[in-house]
Amino acid sequence: MNRFSTLILAMIMAAVPFLTSCEEEIDTPVEKQPASYIGLIQAYEEGRVFSSAEISSGYCTISFNDGFNIKVPQTEVEINDHTDSEPPKITASGGWWKVGDVTLPVKVESSLTIRESSPVYVYFDKVTLVMYLSNRTILKFPSVALEEQEKLEEEISRKQNIPVVRITTDGGKGIYDKKNYVPGTITISDPEKLYSDVEEFSGRMGIRGRGNSTWSFPKKPWKVKLDEKAELLGMPADKEWALLANYADRTLVRNIVAMKLSEICGFSWTPRMRSVEVYLNNEYQGVYTLCEHKKVSSDRVDIDLVGDNDNSGDAVTGGYYLEIEEQQDETTCWWTSMGVPMMFSDPEEPTSQQLAYVKGLFESFEQALWAKDWSESTGYPKYIDVDSFVDYYIVQELTKNIDGNLRKSSFITKERGKKMEMYHLWDFDLTLGNCGYFWGNVGNGPENFWIKIDKWYPHLFEDPAFVAKVQDRWAEVLPEFRTVPDFIDEQVLSLGKAQKRNFQKWSIYESVDWVYFPSLGSYEKEVDYLKEFYTKRLEWLDRELNKL
To answer: In the 8-state DSSP scheme, what is residue 530?
Structure first.
């Protein structure tokens, strides 16, 4: 007899003896349903707390926390075990109940009471006992596990209410370029207080476009400049902030993941980032990353800049904030002898003496690399903070950053009395498998070196001492690197609701042609691919670095 035939039989059988392991008696049922069904309903009405269930010899024994048991014949009420499987979808269609794709001979009878109703589908799982009844009632027995699950679901729901940023420009004016700030008001709501005790911030600001290639995308990135310094979402007070659109990253989290790697390595500054949803003039724009704009300040790039009169002696040696960027879009730019594109970020216009000093410093560093001079006193270690160059290498190689081969978005400081330092990381949307235009035989897979084979790093890896530093540092950070997939899960979980709205606005199938990496078709597949790539890349690097 199959389970649906059993169900029909249960609906027409007369009441049969009802067994319990306690002496407690169940009220004598007068309804048409079997005594065991009425007993379950009575246990629910009495608030008994489900403990466990076991199917054996044609019976299902339901146990409760107070020691009370109900032994239910499967011929009366079929109870299904879903402790290791998902229950089927239960629906009502055309006046009849369906279990999965199968229509049962059970009518939808909304007018019946619970005791008059028939069981449609009854099952237990690791959490509780669930009963679908023909009058559309769903009974979930209370249990300790259910209470814990509900608390967890409540906490997940809370975390998924990520902050909302509302930007209103004066007169509804559009944002058309990367130069001119459009005045307006910004309001940031964090009702769940996910990042601070402040539920809402509101202030005057200006907003303009930002980014290089990202500015050409349909989903625009922006820079915000507040009229007054303010803490935003628990980040230190400042006027200047960035809203990263992450249009080319369909997981929406690659930049945040890279900053986690930065924290693990302990860079001098790790830009703080928060996932938010953005509205511009009441129009939904999607999920963005609100983050600290890269700049010299006490809470960001904390260095003492040179002044106009610091042109000789020790004074001219720092500090400088420099960017590696092939766009060469700052006021003062040059290319080093090894083909590294350099720019002055701050000061933007150094004096002629300062420019000559910095260019000479890079020239001396590269000459030492060419000469294979590994000496601390005369070789390349004289010019650079080697540990920061090691950390930079490790994160850029692990993420296989297409831009990380000393081509774009890399930042070096030179402070007075100190060596050149890779101070912080930036711009990781085209990483961890999200780019298909690597040249040579590198490919987009998790194998092959990319950073190690270009510009300064091939020369650095000729030094056995540098190789040893990389290997030692890798062994030190590897245990924490292995926790990053869990961190990815946490970030993705917080976007559970927001990412759906984002991809209703910007289809998951939309692509950036020059990235040469097509959509995988769903957010879940994109996230799975990110984690798989990261894990495989981590293991490949672990093997290959230790072979050097």
So the answer is: H
Give the separation between CA 143 and CA 63, rounded to whole angstroms: 11
Question: What span, in angstroms and rounded, lies between the C-alpha atoms of 462 and 149?
Answer: 55
The pLDDT of residue 285 is above 80 = yes
8, with CB counted inside 10 A (0-12, 13-18, 19+), is: middle
Question: How are beta strands 200-209 and 222-232 bridged, if at all?
Answer: antiparallel
Residue type for 484, please? Answer: V
Instruction: Assess whether pLDDT exceeds 60 at residue 5.
Output: no
**Which tokens go with 544?**
């290959």
Q: Which structure tokens are listed for 247?
A: 């249009």
Calpha distance 258→518 (Å, rounded): 22
Cβ proximity of 428 and 257 under 8 Å: yes
CA dihedral 11, 17, 18, 21 (to 10 degrees): -160
Residues ≥6 apart with Cβ < 8 Å to 94: none
CA-to-CA distance for 503 and 524, rounded, in angstroms?
Answer: 12
Is 215 exposed, middle or buried, given 0-12, 13-18 or 19+ CB atoms closer than 10 A?
Answer: middle
Q: Which residues of 242-251 are buried (b: 16+ CB within 10 A; e: fewer)?
A: bbbbbbbbbb
Query: Does residue 23 have a pLDDT over 50?
Result: no
280: which 2 tokens? 């511009």
Rounded distance between C-alpha atoms, residue 119 and residue 80, angstroms: 12
Does the structure show a pLDDT above 50 at 25? no
| pLDDT above 70 for 336 | yes
With beta carbons less than 8 A apart as the criterion, state whether 472 and 390 touch. Answer: no
Q: Could you tell me which residues are beta bridge partners of residue 374?
A: none
What six digits make up the tokens of 230?
A: 């303010």
pTM score of the predicted model: 0.80
The label of the residue with tokens 């060419």 reads 370
The label of the residue with tokens 């084979």 reads: 453
Does 347 sit behind a cis peptide bond, omega within 30 degrees of 0 on the bond before it?
A: yes
Pick from 256, 416, 389, 408: nearest CA to 326:
408
Q: Distance (Å, rounded) from C-alpha 229 to C-alpha 298?
A: 13
Distance CA 290, CA 230 (A): 14
Mapping DSSP to helix (H, G, I), strand (E, B) and coil, where does residue 344 land? strand
User: What is the DSSP pairing of strand 182-189 with strand 222-232?
Assistant: unpaired
